[in-house]
Specification:
Catalyzes the complicated ring closure reaction between the two acyclic compounds 1-deoxy-D-xylulose-5-phosphate (DXP) and 3-amino-2-oxopropyl phosphate (1-amino-acetone-3-phosphate or AAP) to form pyridoxine 5'-phosphate (PNP) and inorganic phosphate. The protein is of the alpha/beta class. It is 50% helix and 17% strand. Helix 2 packs parallel to helix 3 and helix 9 runs parallel beside helix 11. The structure holds 1-deoxy-D-xylulose-5-phosphate (DXP) and the ligand NCC(=O)COP(=O)(O)O.
């Protein structure tokens, strides 16, 4: 059965530009409000441990200033857990973090880290926060997420988006298709994201059991040329066309 497909706009890289000079411009909250006006169903922000883009103050402002769900991306650390429990965003997506990576390189290892993930998943869920695990499209990782009690998974689409040959891209897409079917079979809500662009969004948006895409870096880059409203409208149209 095909379901409505939500668009979460990730505004991390508005903060990247702001932080290049310090100060307050451009303001991620303003971008989030504009994104909502342009049709975003929610806002995603990743408070990295090193605060390279989004800051604690950004999260406070987003919590107070937007009237759509905030998807708070966080490492499963005690510090981030305390911040999430203080703000109680609609959703928290647990992601792996490496201090030296340029962006999130792979999914969370829900199998290998089951011991350390159980407590944050339990405490976030008990606080009424919808927990998702950002994982590679591997059935065994989905099974581990389910066993840990996470209601949602977000499939890492980076390998699909970065594929250098049509064959590799087709293979990576097939992994996502299979993982999304597996999520449905075991009762997990399925999201996807990372690196999606106009060129890559269609086949992922067409997967009927995926209900949310989180897209940031490409949209913020595209906004330089056409404005955020136009960039989001075109992404929405591409998603809708693929879903029909
Ligand atoms: C978890 C994920 O894929 C992204 O949402 C994340 O925000 C990437 O981190 P950067 O935004 O720092 O590239
Ligand atoms: N979780 C993925 C996300 O929020 C956006 O990733 P990207 O589009 O900035 O690569």
């Amino acid at each position: 059965m095909s379901r409505t497909l939500r668009l979460g706009v990730n505004i991390d890289h508005v903060a990247t530009v702001r932080n290049a000079r310090g100060g307050t411009n451009p303001d991620p909250l303003r971008a989030a409000m504009l994104a909502i006006e342009a049709g975003a169903d929610g806002i995603t922000a990743h408070l990295r441990e090193d605060r390279r883009h989004i800051t604690d103050r950004d999260i406070e402002k987003l919590m107070a200033g937007i009237d759509r769900p905030l998807n708070f991306e966080m490492a499963a650390t005690d510090e981030m857990l305390a911040i999430a429990l203080r703000h109680k965003p609609h959703a928290a997506c647990l992601v792996p973090e490496k201090r030296t990576e340029v962006t999130t390189e792979g999914g969370l290892d829900a199998i290998g880290n089951a011991g350390s993930l159980a407590r944050p998943i339990g405490e976030l869920g008990a606080a009424g926060i919808r927990v998702s695990l950002f994982i590679d499209p591997e059935p065994a990782q989905l099974d581990a997420a389910k066993a840990l009690g996470a209601p949602v998974v977000e499939l890492h689409t980076g390998a699909y988006c970065d594929a250098e040959t049509p064959e590799t891209r087709a293979h990576e897409l097939e992994r996502i298709v299979r993982a999304a079917a597996h999520a449905e079979a075991i009762g997990l809500e399925c999201h996807a994201g990372h690196g999606l662009s106009y060129a890559t969004v269609g086949p992922v948006a067409a997967i009927p059991t995926i209900v949310e895409l989180n897209i940031g870096h490409f949209l913020i880059g595209e906004a330089i040329f056409v404005g955020l409203t136009n960039a989001i409208a075109r992404m929405r149209a591409a998603m809708n066309a693929a879903r029909r």
